[in-house]
Design brief:
heterodimer, A: alpha/beta, Rossmann fold, two-stranded antiparallel sheet, 23% helix, B: 80 residues, 2 helices, elongated
């Protein structure tokens, strides 16, 4: 299967995602320039981390106008799995492909470290290989990961089981103390109603080998392989 | 014509940057500062024949791009 990774001007985790898909998982992978419109036969599309378009105006605000995004949206509308990582999550929010928005981290600090994240839902293409409530250690590196949605949207996310990841402690306890950036309900990642579009702030692609400090992120990409294999059966 | 757009975080959204600026002002000795909200300011030059149509157009722009209505509110004024 093929992972296609979009490259925006300012992306910096694009090659990490490409490497994780191709070298670590041994799957096909392609890098797609943001001005292209061809997804090159993607089975999975990844919007990577970084600072697309310099985060001008707001994080992700300009990237949604990149020509490739119309193709990504059409792919998602057909049920194709799309993963937005960090800045890619912010792009999905600005593009209206996921609900809510990001504001600055509540303690102002840019947070860059390995954090425990609890998997809340295993029926998405990016968590289907996870155990329920599994705790994954993955790095975060962001200044604007403070997830916000109005109370109605937040309630709908919870009722529809769209909160896919929450910041937790190593034992899997979700509390204000484990909330690294002020996100409502400790939200680290969500999915859309159809569950095929997932965004998260932590970087699974930077935690795919033990030498990197954690290999826990591998299961996120391996989930996509498993999800597509079960579809084609 | 020239229009001005003021974008601020909605009152319900915590503004960490504004809070830090307020703390800095207090540190400078302005201990009468009670709160600061940080926002964005845009000046838009637009080809329009009258103020009403300019305001309609720029309001649309604010809604679609200049502000993110999930977290921000905006105010548009057209200069005479």
């Amino acid at each position: 299967m093929k992972f296609s990774v979009v490259v925006f001007p300012g992306s910096n985790s694009d090659y990490d995602a490409f490497y994780a898909a191709s070298s670590v998982l041994g799957e096909d992978a392609a890098l797609l320039w943001h001005k292209d419109t061809d997804l090159q036969g993607a089975d999975v599309v990844i919007l990577p981390g970084g600072f697309a378009h310099g985060d001008y105006l707001r994080t992700g605000a300009i990237a949604r106008f990149s020509p490739i995004m119309a193709s990504v949206k059409a792919f998602a509308d057909r049920g194709g799995p799309v993963l937005g990582i960090c800045n890619g999550f912010q792009v999905l929010l600005e593009a209206g492909m996921l609900p809510g928005a990001m504001v600055r981290n509540d303690r102002i600090k840019f947070v860059s470290r390995l954090v425990p994240v609890r998997v809340e839902q295993t029926d998405t293409p990016f968590t289907v290989a996870c155990a329920s409530k599994q705790v994954l250690h993955m790095p975060v590196a962001h200044g604007e990961g403070n997830y916000y949605a109005d109370p109605e949207t937040l309630a709908a996310l919870e009722v529809n089981r769209q909160v896919v990841f929450r910041y937790a402690d190593a034992a899997g306890e979700v509390s204000p103390a484990s909330n690294i950036n002020g996100s409502l309900n400790n939200i680290a990642g969500i999915c859309n109603r159809q569950r095929n579009v997932v965004g998260l702030m932590p970087h699974p692609e930077r935690a795919t080998e033990a030498q990197l400090g954690s290999a826990d992120g591998r299961v996120i990409l391996a989930s996509a392989v498993k999800a597509l294999a079960s579809l084609s059966r | 014509m020239r229009a001005r757009v003021y974008v601020t975080l909605k009152p319900s959204v915590f503004d960490p940057q504004g809070r830090v600026v307020a703390d800095a002002l207090v540190t400078l000795g302005y201990d009468d500062v009670q709160d600061v909200r940080q926002g964005k300011f845009f000046e838009v030059e637009i080809a329009a024949t009258d103020a009403a149509s300019a305001k309609t157009r720029v309001t649309e722009m604010a809604d679609k791009l200049l502000a993110n209505p999930v977290i921000e509110s905006y105010r548009v004024e057209v200069l005479p």
